[in-house]
Amino acid sequence: MTQNKCIPSHVAIIMDGNGRWAQQRNQLRATGHRAGLKAVRKIVTYAASIGIKVLTLYAFSSENWKRPSTEVSALISLFMYALNREMKSLNKNNVRLNIIGDISRFSYHLQNMITNAEQLTQNNTGLVLNIAANYGGRWDILQSAQKITAQVVNGEITLDDITEERFASQMCMYDLPEVDLVIRTGGDCRISNFLLWQIAYSELYFTDILWPDFNSTQFDEAIKAFNTRERRFGGIPTTQEHSC
Length: 244
Ligand code: IPE
Ligand code: IPE
Ligand code: MG
Hints:
This protein has one domain (about 10-135, about 180-225): Decaprenyl diphosphate synthase-like (Undecaprenyl pyrophosphate synthetase), CATH 3.40.1180.10. By secondary structure, it is of the alpha/beta class. It has seven helices and six strands; from the N terminus they run E-H-H-E-H-E-H-E-H-H-E-E-H.
């Protein structure tokens, strides 16, 4: 269990490295994704146990459709399998599940499964678990711009009413605490179109560990690193000891 002083309220994770994990073992990439799902289970449980309030996991990007169709199908099947299998235990553990992303590209069957899962858990008061599926940071900004533009066109608001707050209110996760910490596994130091607007002042942590190998010890390491950061939000260093 972490001895850290500050537990970030909202942690977002780019779960990268499943393919390489499998390749290192001469196995199919799909095997790596299945191993990745096991890591998800453990990390969700651990996050809830240490008092993280919101965990946002990047499962499938809006660009991941570029992969071979066999891999895309394997990923979508795994997502459906996980939704089916995990819902009961997530609900029992008081987890509130949200799927963020453009789900309209998924089959009606999967869209229904998502809606049902969200409805089942919507009144839960424990960990909020956001799964980003067909999510892109640019899509998120664009869909907000479209909704706001429609309000202007309909005469509901004027151009001057478009404040940062109103714009943010149309983005995914607007009602949740700000993202404190973004973790990316797999060794690459980039965002890959994950949250863009929402991570303006998040702390970023990159690790070479491949996602299937990411466990509570590595999670603690990331939180420890987070605790060494001084978050100034554009201000100047404070002399007071940082409090959570
Ligand atoms: C991350 O692992 C999972 C998804 C993008 C769905 P990758 O499949 O990208 O694994 P690597 O980066 O090829 O090792
Ligand atoms: C980011 O990983 C997407 C997810 C983890 C879901 P990618 O493997 O798709 O990112 P790139 O292609 O290396 O930037
Ligand atoms: Mg990758």
